[in-house]
Amino acid sequence: MQPTRREMLGSLGALATAGGWIALNAGEAAAQPAGGALPAAKEYVLPPLPYAYDALEPYIDKETMMLHHDKHEAAYVKGVNEAIAGLAAARQSGKPEDIAKVRALTDSLAFNGSGVILHDIFWPNMKKGGGGEPKGDLARYVARDFGSFSGFQAQFNEAGLKVQGSGWAILAWEPLAARLVVLGAEKHQNVTMWGCVPLLVLDVWEHAYYLKYQNKRADYIQAFGKVVNWDNVAERLNGAMKLTA
Ligand code: MN
């Protein structure tokens, strides 16, 4: 006697919480993958800021935050979802003229997808009353891998200052050597190091600071140091380190 669906779901535990089996191949009997039904991949969405638009005043002004979150990131969210849909359409068509769109769509996926991901890290990387220095294990790793907190700050700020054009400075956990690194990202997707886990990211696109700081990116980078949410960075480190366990 076949086990009931409920019995199978029960035996599969938490993996099988999504409803329904996936028919992997239309026209054949519905396949039942050993791991249970996969949940649908998520649409990218624009999450609300984790604080008020003016929470980071006077370091980052309310109007910049409103434009940055509501307009710029919203455009990245729209763009990445359109890239995913466009790639699906190109795959389904299979015609050479549609497959030829993959390069442009892949560029769009990388650009808009990186924009969404980095901003979603950036917002909770900051908080009202932030700044100061990291504590606990994060502080010990910063000291181990950069010599000192001031050494880290000098390297991070210089990396942000010297990004060519628009981009980001990124503190990341590099899981291969199990160490912290500071990287720059030019635009969103270039000059990156695959496999690293971003822990602290600083948006140095002009839209992040130009209304208040004009050409003084260095002053903006200094101000960022006043709003960093190190507890959030430490949480991210804990999560990233599980990858190397
Ligand atoms: Mn931005």
How far apart the termini lie comes to: 42 Å
Unreliable spans: 1-32
Structural class: mainly alpha
Could you tell me the number of beta strands? 3
> Mean pLDDT, as a whole number?
83
Give the overall form.
Answer: globular
CATH architecture of the largest domain: 3-Layer(bab) Sandwich
Query: Which sequence of strands runs across the widest sheet?
Result: 2-1-3
Structure description:
With 245 residues, the chain is mainly alpha-helical. The chain has two domains: 62-122, Fe,Mn superoxide dismutase (SOD) domain (Helix Hairpins, Orthogonal Bundle); 127-241, Iron/manganese superoxide dismutase, C-terminal domain (minor pseudopilin epsh fold), CATH 3.55.40.20. It has nine helices and three strands. A three-stranded antiparallel β-sheet has the order 2-1-3. Strand 1 and strand 2 (179-186) form a beta hairpin. The site of manganese (II) ion (MN) has 7 residues, from helix 2.
Summarize the structure.
With 245 residues, this protein is mainly alpha-helical.
Can you tag this structure with a few keywords?
minor pseudopilin epsh fold, 3 strands, binds manganese (II) ion, single chain, mainly alpha, disordered N terminus
SSE topology sketch:
Layout: H1 5-12, H2 62-93, H3 96-99, H4 102-122, H5 136-146, H6 149-161, E1 167-174, E2 179-186, E3 197-203, H7 210-213, H8 217-224, H9 230-241
Antiparallel strand pairs: 1-2, 1-3
